[in-house]
Specification:
- The chain contains nine helices and no strands.
- It is mainly alpha-helical.
Amino acid sequence: MNFLGYAAICLLGLLIGSFLNVVIYRVPDGRSVVKPRSSCASCGSLIRERDNIPVVSWLLLRGKCRDCGTAVSARYPLVELANALLWLVMAWQFGLSWELPAYLYFVSIGLALAVIDLDTKRLPNALTLPSYLVGGALLAIPAFADPNWGAYGRAWLGAAVLFAFYFLLVLIYPRGMGLGDVKLAGVLGLYLGWLGWGEVVVGGFLGFLLGALVGGGLMLVGLAGRKSKIPFGPFMIVGALLAVLWGDSAWNVYLDTLT
């Protein structure tokens, strides 16, 4: 991919990131992400078109509402920048391939779910359940174009395996995680399974490893206790993302240690 290709990916990533802010803000409350138009949470003034340019508008307005001067959270441009960066990483990983649209959706929905889980300690069905259909449809494109129906079948098996594993954990220890994590696990397994069984194992393992490290660190510094509820979804998502990028290499290194 040339410079113009990456620039286009970055621009589209910023625009989708702006939409993700609407998703993050409205979906947990069961509100439409289409109507009404975005407005200031403080004074209710509608956001003008010129004030809705990703990152740039926030910088020009110095992080404040044009009408009432109330501070606008820096998280809005950070989400936009994060989504653009994730899109660039996926473009670097997959290039202009049939797989790229599926993994662009993967990182965007993962970013939205991670932020929502941090905010509300929930993973809304309105995002996780449709992701099975969207992910399955997007992965069917490379399966048909290449063709690679073996990988497509493995993707659904990966979804079933991670879903079943997390569901078993909930049955054994219900206080450890929720059904939202179970549903998310299936979505992550779908994308990891397309790449290989090594990615499924590494992605699942990294989620627990990251959760243990961060949770343990928060306890050490006194910011959390044993009974504190720490959202697990973000760790699952980050672990899956790392597995998409380096899961195959990590799995091969592990296999080499066994021989």
